[in-house]
Design goal:
Layout: E1 9-20, E2 26-33, H1 36-41, E3 49-54, E4 58-63, E5 74-79, H2 83-89, E6 96-103, E7 116-122, H3 126-136, E8 148-154, H4 163-170, E9 176-181, E10 185-186, E11 189-190, E12 218-220, H5 223-230, E13 237-242, H6 245-257, E14 265-268, E15 284-285, E16 288-289, H7 290-293, E17 296-298, H8 299-305
Parallel strand pairs: 7-8, 7-13, 8-9, 9-12, 13-14
Antiparallel strand pairs: 1-2, 1-6, 2-5, 3-4, 3-6, 10-11, 14-17, 15-16
Bound molecules: flavin-adenine dinucleotide (FAD) and FE2/S2 (inorganic) cluster.
Flavin-adenine dinucleotide (FAD) is lined by residues 49, 58, 60-63, 77-79, 81-85, 124, 127-128, 270-273, 295.
Length: 309
């Protein structure tokens, strides 16, 4: 490991899979450090990110989706949006990518022991919080936590990330899983077309009053309405949410209506970043450097930083 904090550690791609299609596809890549020393020194916790670098293209901050219980490789879910993420999408097994990190703070997972956990993701927002549910559901850790509920939504079934494992969880008694896909909008507002088969449409105005048929896990609605419908209890519960800012805003509003305090709700922030180590000033909000002090914050802290939330 180099003393230069900007020098990436070389890692080999050992697995790739397409996680979601659509106009902004998501690819999952698994990488293993080439040098044993780098592998041993890299100690990530749920919530951490790493900077991935592609020679000649640049660097991108990406959440580590694999839990620390996975010792042999790191896993990332990357949405193709621009120059670097397009280059990362072209990686194949055997290629080399640069990794530096781990960066950022962690979800305070030890403080959550004995509590129920509600995990709410929207779109690519499931990536940063996947490491939490994989950590909590690991057989070594499962007994330390209460009931686990996963709620996740994307635009279409094709846009859902981590489908394979989430669909497997749907068939199990633990965790509770609820998935949703978006209503479609047309030029005149909501399109009046049949709901996608297997994904019954929920009238968004009545979401709070809807009774869920036993065994129903898939719906056509937005993630905030899913929260309104499932009505997780705030009692001895921690809620973790991540997704586009507009989704987080309405998800947290609905959690508040259910009685969650701001300090029971955690999220991760994705401000633009460059150095990742609190030097360049790209990510800061006032005196808070999101790359070092975050990206994990509780909702009380988020509101102090960004009152518009
Ligand atoms: C803490 C953190 C965790 C992240 N985790 C993930 C993850 O797990 N998976 C993932 O796919 N992405 C994640 N991102 C976002 C990712 O870093 C950016 O999408 C990526 O750097 C874009 O690089 P690019 O060169 O492909 O895009 P560019 O060519 O630089 O830009 C393409 C488009 O993306 C927008 N963009 C660029 N950077 C960001 C950003 N940081 N946030 C929002 N929009 C941006 C640009 O405005 C432009 O519209 C994370 C960002 C942060 C800060
Ligand atoms: S990314 Fe440089 S200070 Fe945070």
């Amino acid at each position: 490991m180099s003393d230069n904090p900007y020098e990436p550690m070389p890692a080999r791609v050992i697995g790739v899979s397409m996680e979601a299609g659509g106009i902004r596809p998501v690819k999952k890549i698994q990488v293993a450090f080439i040098n044993e020393e780098d592998k041993n020194n890299f100690k990530n916790v749920p919530g951490n990110c790493a900077i991935l670098s592609m020679i000649g293209q640049g660097e991108s901050m990406i959440s580590i989706t694999s839990p620390p219980t996975e010792k042999d490789f790191l896993e990332f879910a990357i949405m193709k949006v621009g120059v670097v993420t397009t280059a990362l999408h072209e990686l194949e097994v055997g290629d080399i990518v640069g990794v530096r990190g781990p960066y950022g703070n962690a979800f305070p997972i030890d403080d959550w022991k004995g509590k129920d956990i509600v995990i709410i993701g929207a779109g690519i927002g499931m990536a940063p919080i996947r490491s939490i549910y994989n950590y909590i559901l690991h057989p070594d850790n499962r007994k330390d936590f209460g009931k686990v509920t996963l709620m996740y939504g994307a635009r279409t079934p094709n846009d859902l990330s981590f489908k394979k494992e989430l669909f497997e969880y749907e068939d199990q008694a633990d965790p509770d899983v609820f998935l949703c896909i978006d209503w479609k909008f047309g030029p005149n507002g909501m399109m009046d077309e049949d709901a996608q088969e297997g994904w019954p449409r929920i009238n968004m105005k009545d979401a709070g009053a809807t009774v869920i048929p036993p065994g129903q896990t898939r719906f056509t609605c937005f993630v905030p309405q899913l929260v309104e419908m499932i009505k997780p209890s705030p009692e001895n519960t921690i809620a973790i949410t991540c997704g586009p800012p507009i989704a987080i805003k309405f998800i947290t509003q609905n959690l508040s209506k259910l009685g969650f305090d701001d300090e029971q709700i955690f999220t991760t922030m994705e401000n633009r970043m460059k150095c990742g180590i609190g030097k360049c000033g790209r990510c800061n909000i006032g005196e808070v450097f999101v790359c070092v002090d975050g990206p994990v914050f509780n909702y009380k802290q988020v509101k102090e930083l960004l009152p518009e939330y």
